[in-house]
Write a structure and sequence with these properties.
- The chain is of the alpha/beta class.
- The chain has 18 helices and 14 strands.
- The chain has a six-stranded parallel sheet, sandwiched between helices. Strands 11-10-9-12-13-14 form a six-stranded parallel sheet, with helices on both faces. A two-stranded parallel ribbon has the order 7-8.
- α11 runs antiparallel to α12 and α12 crosses α13.
- It starts with a strand and ends with a strand.
- The model has no long low-confidence stretch (mean pLDDT about 95).
- Bound molecules: nicotinamide-adenine-dinucleotide and uridine-5'-diphosphate-glucuronic acid.
- Nicotinamide-adenine-dinucleotide binds next to α5.
Length: about 475
């Protein structure tokens, strides 16, 4: 089937950028991104393209080019489903917060709602593409719902997981390492795979488009995230050993990364990984392994999360210990709140947990982040439900200007690796702070020697 009309359910960090690139590269395909969240859709449609709800370098330019031509954002979900030949499901699949599998399994209620809606609305055969990250074998549940509640039309289900990283979404989508498409081995399944391959082939070289069966595709996505997160936890584990032994984790990372079998990427020690997916996907993997009775497999992967939690906690504990075992009423400035640079996403950011620990010790937290709003910071902390909103309000403030944020602080903690932090006038910051002035660099970002020469007490991870 030649695809001329695509619908994507979910206008989030994946649905929005992914569809924007498909629309840019395939001007003859009408692409409609739908969402129940009216506010989000209104922002995608904002006449000022700089106000789109997701900050990603280069994204507003792509949206400006395609929006209104063949890219549309809408809340009319039924209409978009009805018109499309191919429907991507890009809704959120968070960790369950209730019932069996609470705290581990992926919550598939939004996926099921989409499947039921597609079944109800569809009057012609359609290809349904799982873009969300899903537990292995979810496609069979979707298939059951579609075939048992539908109007007798035929559905093919493909798995096409997304591998983009936030902050580099546009470049990742334009030049992906690979595009993975899983489908049924039947003739109809293979034909559906071909329809999607034809879409990506417009800009992705064919040797980078990999086709597999559905289960391999679903499981490869969880596996890729587990391997990536495991590298971060592995280097973070070594960072603690480096601190005890006089080794320097950056030197160790460089030395091992030059071994082509290990590779140099994803070996940067940090205050701990964040983001909406690593933890959620590993917990899901652990849950799946447990449901098959594979306890050793489950324990192996769970350790990646245990190490990451330890790394975050260790960072805040060290701040308290270094500041003479008390941070009560001390102003501690956070540079960065987002879970990594070049995104406004804060989900599972290490900053949230470090702030929570320090507020527990009654520190006054002053935050500067170039892309995150004060409202978002407070909502992240309130979500933890460790104290009242009023208390969080009292202890956490935010600033538009980094120099104001640092004024009269006892210490600075670097939580996100925004490039601009390196360009600051650090002498001016030092002069405005209380002495002794401390910098705890949770990203090993700043020039420690320069800061020490100014007079800072500078500490980084793993040395
Ligand atoms: P998100 O929360 O940013 O966006 C999901 C959107 O789906 C929300 O706007 C929500 O309102 C909408 N939605 C939920 N149910 C709906 C329904 N029934 N009808 C219409 N809209 C509905 O989530 P995200 O970060 O884009 O992630 C989506 C999926 O992609 C997840 O499974 C995630 O694991 C996966 N993923 C995310 C990334 C990433 O970088 N964020 C990368 C790869 C894969
Ligand atoms: C990650 C994967 O990289 C993507 O391939 C995947 O599609 C995505 O998850 C997903 O499924 O959601 P993302 O979480 O956006 O992407 O960003 P990463 O660059 O992977 O960083 C994740 C976290 O690890 C960040 O907090 C980052 O600061 C941290 N990190 C990363 C380190 O601490 N050290 C490193 O060396 C690399």
């Amino acid at each position: 089937m030649k695809i001329t009309n695509i619908c994507c359910i979910g206008a989030g960090y994946v649905g929005g950028p992914t569809m924007a690139i498909i629309a840019q590269k395939c001007p003859d395909i009408k692409v409609t991104v739908v969402d129940l969240n009216e506010d989000r859709i209104a922002k995608w449609n904002d006449t000022d393209v700089n106000n789109i709800p997701i900050y990603e370098p280069g994204l507003s330019e792509v949206v400006a080019e395609a929006r209104g031509r063949n890219l549309f954002f809408s809340t009319e979900v039924d209409k978009a489903i009805d018109e499309a030949q191919m429907i991507f499901i890009s809704v959120n699949t968070p960790t369950k917060t209730y019932g069996s599998g609470k705290g581990m399994a992926a919550d598939l209620k939004y996926i099921e709602l989409c499947a039921r809606q597609i079944a109800r609305v569809s009057k012609q055969d359609k290809i349904v593409v799982e873009k969300s990250t899903l537990p292995v074998r979810t496609a069979s549940a979707i298939k059951n719902i579609l075939h048992n509640t539908g109007n007798g039309v035929q559905f093919q289900i493909l798995s096409n997981p997304e591998f983009l990283a936030e902050g580099t979404a546009v470049e990742d989508l334009l030049a992906p390492d690979r595009v993975l498409i899983g489908g049924d081995t039947t003739e109809e399944g293979q034909s559906a795979i071909k329809s999607l391959v034809d879409v990506y082939s417009r800009w992705v070289p064919s040797e980078r488009i990999l086709t597999t069966n559905v289960w391999s595709s679903e499981l490869s996505k969880l596996t890729a995230n587990a391997f990536l997160a495991q590298r971060v936890s592995s280097i973070n584990a070594m960072s603690e050993l480096c601190e005890k032994t006089g080794a320097d984790v950056s030197e160790v990372a460089k030395a091992i990364g030059m071994d082509s079998r290990i590779g140099s990427k994803f070996l940067k020690a940090s205050v701990g990984f964040g983001g909406s997916c690593f933890q959620k996907d590993i917990l899901n993997l652990v849950y799946i392994a447990k449901t098959y009775g594979l306890n050793e497999v489950a324990d192996y992967w769970e350790q990646v999360i245990i190490m990451n939690d330890h790394q975050k906690r260790r960072f805040s504990k060290n701040i308290v210990a270094t500041l003479y075992n008390t941070v009560a009423d001390k102003k501690i400035t956070f540079l960065g709140w987002a879970f990594k640079k070049d995104t406004n996403d804060t989900r599972e950011s290490a900053a949230i947990y470090v702030a929570d620990d320090l507020v527990f010790e009654q520190a006054k937290i002053a935050v500067y982040d170039p892309k995150v709003s004060h409202k978002q910071m407070l909502s992240d902390l309130n979500y933890l439900e460790t104290r009242t909103k009023e208390e969080n309000d009292k202890f956490v403030s935010s600033f538009e200007d980094p120099y104001e944020a640092c004024k009269e602080a006892h210490a600075i903690a670097v939580l996100t690796e925004w490039d601009e932090f390196n360009e600051y006038d650090w002498q001016r910051i030092y002069d405005s702070m209380l002495k002794p002035a401390f910098v705890f660099d949770g990203r090993n970002l700043l020039d420690g020697k320069k800061l020490q020469a100014i007079g800072f007490h500078y500490q980084e991870i793993g040395s």
